[in-house]
Design a protein that fits this description.
The protein is mostly helical and about 575 residues long. The chain contains 24 helices and no strands. It comes from Pomacea canaliculata.
């Protein structure tokens, strides 16, 4: 009862000066209704009854949808809160992350994705399994990806959305987090690499990457600059230095720069437009969260669940993926209090620091896997292990000592207090890269026949790839189990038309579809697979996207020089 009264009082206070008004709530309600209608339309119109349809959208997405999807997946509520907050704390330098992202997107479209499409994989851990053989790399990457999602993407986005609600409605943080738990949206989307894997062909992959790269310039002007302005307009709140004062302003003694963007919206925008901005924040939150939800479901079901249920039906994998997402949300909410106190209360720095504990060895591995054919499984695995140990040690020290509150002296050891996390990531990348190369050179190479269409240099090869012995044995085991289930009629699905109405609705909502009896000859199946893994490009469009890429590189260099 007391919690209810507190929430009611907070809502009443929110309608005072600086809070949201009736018009704002009307705008938000209209937005939520439109979201619900769009989700229902997508439920019945899109192909979600198969793994490729659900996880890769049928591989039929056009360039503008790929580009918009890449940008919306990358720019979520965490970006609005984190980028603006770090901009308020330290100035324009944080925009370098977004300008660097411009070049990373071009590398994605021109170097990485062509190899991923040629290899015919659904996930990055699956690529490692095909590239190196064995399963330990695949399982390690799958588990690590899920851990990173919990520590960074999901928990950070939920916390960022909670900050917006706290500034608008003055609710306690745990009430806000509970509201996110109860109102989770189940819209299927994918993140970054998997977004591009859903593209129609290579022209649309590169076109989408170019569009997203152009859009990456926007955060400098629409997020970082407003954060800096907020610090000037509200120095005693956004720039608070006393821990007790910070606790009163934003419930975080480590600092209140995270409220820079929400504070600007709530205090300065007129009624009505506040609702539009809050709706935009909800859109950013749902876009980034649902992208991670589906990507994590993809990784868990394909790279982990199928190890234990090798003959699992597609319906089973779809349901398991959705249930697993609920578990991830719970773990992320539990982690939020730790996130809140880390890196001096700056959300964006926290995200980059945690990513820096684990990501550099992964980058080193994928660069070597794609560009250096000599890289083998032993070098890849033990290079990752060296990087993992170093990253975990740094993470334990960072969270063990914590960050000093506003105005407090930094008494942490020199290796933590003086070695910036960005400098640490560079060192970690170099160590992991060198370890992988050294161990690879000291161990036997992989046969060339195993690498067909799995590296940059073999992506156009028309030769038949030879599977690794363990890979071939696994495929035979799966075929045998599926055949056994068919013989026992366990693999057959009853006709949904004779089921109760409520169960038909549940199947439709969860993406279930009656399996279609499509008999394909071996030649037709081979031609279909060849089409899905084709990386050929039309000469005219290839020139067009390459010229655009050069323009982008020049434009990015100009921005670096102008604002640097």
């Amino acid at each position: 009862m007391m919690a209810s009264n507190s929430s009611t009082d907070g809502l009443g206070t929110a309608f005072s000066k600086g809070g949201v008004g009736t018009a704002d709530l009307i705008v938000i309600v209209i937005y939520l209704i439109l979201c619900m209608l769009t989700g229902l339309w997508a439920t019945w119109k899109t192909q979600r009854g198969s793994v490729s349809g659900y996880f890769l959208a049928g591989r039929d997405i056009l360039w503008f949808a790929v580009g918009a999807s890449l940008f919306s997946s990358n720019i979520g509520s965490g970006s609005f809160v984190g980028l603006a907050g770090t901009g308020a704390a330290s100035g324009i330098a944080v925009a370098s992350y977004e300008l660097n992202g411009l070049y990373c997107l071009l590398l994605l479209g021109w170097i990485f994705v062509p190899v991923y499409i040629a290899s015919g994989v659904y996930t990055m851990p699956e690529y490692l399994m095909k590239r190196f053989g064995g399963q330990r790399l695949q399982v390690y990457m799958a588990v690590l990806s899920l851990i990173i999602y919990v520590f960074t993407k999901i928990s950070a986005d939920i916390y960022a959305g909670a900050i917006f609600i706290q500034q608008a409605l003055k609710w306690n943080i745990y009430v806000r987090l509970l509201s996110f738990w109860q109102s989770r949206q189940c819209t299927p989307c994918l993140v970054l690499v998997q977004r591009t894997l859903a593209a129609k062909n290579m022209h649309h992959v590169k076109g989408g990457s170019i569009l997203a790269a152009y859009l990456k310039v926007l955060p400098l002007f629409i997020i970082v600059f407003p954060g800096m302005i907020s610090r000037v307009l509200f120095p005693d709140e956004v720039g608070c230095v006393d821990p007790d004062q910070c606790r009163m302003v934003c419930e975080n003694p480590a600092g209140c720069t995270n409220i820079a963007y929400p504070k600007l919206v709530i205090e300065l925008m007129p009624t009505g437009l506040k609702g539009v901005m809050l709706a935009a924040m909800m859109a950013a939150l749902m876009s980034s969260l649902t992208s991670v939800f589906n990507s994590s479901a993809t990784i868990f079901t394909i790279d982990i669940w199928k190890r234990f249920r090798v003959a699992a039906t597609e319906t089973e994998m779809l349901v398991v993926g959705r249930v697993f997402v609920l578990i991830l949300i719970g773990l992320s909410i539990v982690w939020v209090p730790v996130l809140q106190a880390s890196q001096g209360g700056q959300l964006f720095n926290y995200i980059q620091a945690v990513t820096g504990y684990f990501a550099p060895p992964i980058l080193a591995l994928f660069l070597l896997a794609i560009l250096w054919e000599r890289t083998n499984e032993k070098g890849a695995f033990w290079g990752l292990m060296v990087g993992l140990v170093i990253g975990i040690v740094r993470m334990a020290l960072d969270f063990g000592y914590g960050s000093p509150d506003c105005g407090e002296e930094d008494t942490r050891p020199v290796i933590i207090g003086r070695l910036h996390f960005l400098h640490f990531t560079i060192l970690l990348f170099v160590v992991s890269f060198v370890a992988t190369v050294v161990i690879t050179v000291l161990t036997p190479p992989i046969k060339k026949s195993h690498l067909i269409r799995l590296t940059w240099w073999t992506r156009h090869s028309e030769e038949e790839r030879e599977e690794f012995p363990e890979e071939k044995a696994r495929h035979e085991k799966v075929k045998a189990k599926i055949a056994a289930k068919v013989d026992e009629e366990e693999f057959k699905v009853s006709d949904t038309r004779i089921l109760p109405a409520w169960r038909r609705f549940l199947y439709a909502f969860c993406g279930y579809e009656q399996p279609k009896d499509v008999d394909m000859s071996q030649e037709e199946e081979s031609a279909h697979k060849k089409l899905l893994t084709s990386v050929r490009e039309d000469r005219r469009w290839k020139w067009f996207v390459n010229i655009n890429a050069l323009i982008l590189i020049t434009f990015g260099g100009f921005l670096w020089g102008f604002f640097g």
